[in-house]
Write a structure and sequence with these properties.
The structure is a single chain. The chain has 110 residues and is mostly helical. It has one domain. Helices cover 86% and strands 0% of the residues. It is built from four helices and no strands. α3 runs antiparallel to α4. The longest helix is centred in the last third of the chain and has 42 residues. The chain is rod-shaped and about 65 Å long. It starts with a helix and ends with a helix.
């Protein structure tokens, strides 16, 4: 609203946009829930990327070893990291969907 007051003109598009973003009449609790869910989803996505890297590393190591027992151990590690990757991504997806539902309910509940 400062640019409109400064130049003494009708409300500009920048102020209209800031009004839409910051003056939405929903409480602070839904916003805190949504932000927390998005932060947790981001952390799960980073964990998933790390597990995917570990999965690929152990999968390649299992393929190039000559020792059968070592290849089996590395293959098992690869499977564990693959399962973790899928679990973390599913959790991140559910958190994002849940956060969007909370936001929509909070917007329409007013």
């Amino acid at each position: 609203m400062e640019c409109c007051r400064l130049y003494r003109v009708p409300q500009c598009s920048v102020c209209s946009l800031s009004y839409l973003i910051w003056e939405i009449p929903i409480g602070s609790v839904p916003i805190q829930i949504v932000l927390t869910a998005f932060i947790l989803a981001l952390a799960l996505s980073v964990g998933s990327a790390y597990c995917k890297h570990q999965y690929k590393m152990w999968d390649v190591k299992a393929a190039v070893t000559d020792n059968v027992s070592e290849a089996l151990r590395r293959s098992c590690l690869s499977g564990v990291y693959l399962k973790l990757t899928r679990t973390f991504m599913a959790g991140a997806t559910l958190l994002i969907i849940g956060a969007l539902i909370v936001l929509l309910v909070a917007l329409w509940y007013q």
